[in-house]
Design goal:
Distance between the termini of chain A: 28 Å
Number of helices of chain A: 0
Structural class of chain A: mainly beta
Number of strands of chain A: 9
Helix content of chain A: under 10%
Strand content of chain A: 35-45%
Order of helices and strands of chain B: EEEEEEEEEEE
Shape of chain A: globular
Helix content of chain B: under 10%
Largest sheet of chain A: 6 strands, mixed
Radius of gyration of chain B: 13 Å
Strand content of chain B: over 45%
Oligomer: heterodimer
Largest interface: A-B, 26 and 23 residues
């Protein structure tokens, strides 16, 4: 069981909008720790997609956006494209565990 | 260009030890926190350990605490993970990653390609 909870899978048709939730608790997201998102295309290393809740590294399309509220965070992807098919992970810090925590990951399927 | 190249993986019997290395280039290694993250076959990402720029602050996941030791040599631009008392559940692809700042606990800005560790008799 991951400390951060994500849906195992989401799907959407090309051009649609999807969101991926990341639910934590009062010792991580709710404590004010930042949330970061990673994209992992199968067979490759993860890459940071969103950092510090809602910032995009250069090169990441503005179709990707992040938000955080209370003990949860969300990743939104608009204008879905076939190349977005990948696994997505949220990450934060947990003060009770004194460590970095990842969500269990969400597999995005573009129909 | 930031490059992180892991080495030292392989097949090892349960109870034995293995040392992973990560060679860093393309940035001032001594300025950044470093991490190890692993991914068991078909599973999600699991943080293993993090270390600040000067080794002054270190953290471990509960699953490896007391068995694994992270270290770095800033003069050699290298990060290490000494893994002792290995278990079959330690089988995974191990990634070396660079943090975004000198302190660990934030986000992992760059990742290596990973090195496979298989623990089996």
């Amino acid at each position: 069981q991951s400390v951060l909870t994500q849906p195992p899978s989401v799907s959407g048709a090309p051009g649609q909008r999807v969101t991926i939730s990341c639910t934590g608790s009062s010792s991580n997201i709710g404590a004010g720790y930042d949330v970061h998102w990673y994209q992992q295309v199968p067979g490759t290393a993860p890459k940071v997609l969103i950092y510090v809740n809602n910032y995009r590294p250069s090169g990441v399309p503005d179709r990707f956006s992040g938000s955080k509220s209370g003990t949860s965070a969300s990743l939104a992807i608009t204008g879905l494209q076939a190349e977005d098919e990948a696994d997505y992970y949220c990450q934060s810090y947990d003060s009770s565990l004194s460590g970095v925590v990842f969500g269990g990951g969400t597999k995005l399927t573009v129909l | 260009e930031v490059q992180l190249v892991e080495s030292g993986g392989g097949l090892v019997q349960p109870g034995r030890s293995l040392r992973l290395s990560c060679a860093a280039s393309g940035f001032r290694f001594e300025d950044y926190a470093m991490y190890w993250v692993r991914q068991a076959p078909g599973k999600g990402l699991e943080w293993v350990s993090g270390m600040s720029w000067n080794s002054g602050s270190i953290g471990y996941a509960e699953t490896v605490k007391g068995r694994f030791t992270i270290s770095r040599d800033n003069a050699k631009n290298s990060l290490y993970l000494q893994m002792n008392s290995l278990r079959t559940e330690d089988t995974a692809l191990y990634y070396c990653a660079r943090g975004d700042s000198s302190s660990w606990g934030r986000y992992l800005e760059y990742w290596g390609q990973g090195i496979l560790v298989t623990v089996s008799s």
